[in-house]
Design a protein that fits this description.
The chain is of the alpha+beta class and 244 residues long. 35% of the residues lie in helices and 18% in strands. The chain has two domains: 90 residues, no CATH class; 91 residues, OB fold (Dihydrolipoamide Acetyltransferase, E2P) (Beta Barrel), CATH 2.40.50. Helix 1 runs antiparallel to helix 3 and helix 1 runs parallel beside helix 4.
Amino acid sequence: MSVVPSQGLSRRALMLGPLLLLVPNDAKARRRWGGGGGSHSPFALVIGGVLLCAILVANSVFGRDLPPKGAGKPRATREAVGTVTKFKPAKRSAAARRGLSPWVFVLPLAGIVIGGAYGWATVPPEDTISASFPICASDARTTCVVDGDTFWLDGIKYRISDIDTPEISEPRCAGERELGQRAKYRLQSLLNGGSFGLKAGLRDEDKYGRKLREVYRGGRSLGAQLVDEGLAHRWLGFKQSWCG
């Protein structure tokens, strides 16, 4: 049976450790993985990174290479000098010890930073916004709903960044227009259902000047709720067809 070197274990842990920090660390987050929002506890991700770093450091500090097979306690040798036999003790060689690699510190610390940033970025915002949303008319728009994924709030136009809903102004088929109308009124109902929060992503706004935000209430993405109800597609970077 072969023995796996501890150095190999360290390398695998160094590669997998930072990736494991990206996994949502609570059941609620795992159930809605990809649904807009991950872990509710970024501190658990940081603690996981610290523990990983401690394990790797301990493995490198206390791990030592095993002596070669057949190596035992050194024995004294006899050396004849004239008529007198002298005993010459064999010198003990220092046990081989593996040096401490700088990657043991660099990669786990990188995992801590990535995990902490991920945890912070995926914590849902507080529900601090409350307003009344009518359907937008053709005149000046201040606070109203345009369609299933676009609305105005206090004179600023927002696009819900984690979903894409059917087009109303330029639909590809009658079914898309009908579903788009349903998505619009459903978004109006959700926004008027109580206070909510907005969370920014990597991009602040799109090419049309609309602010890109995810909308949350009680830690749940309203965009994900529209997806669950069949009124939106999850945004994958491109539009998906609504016409079969």
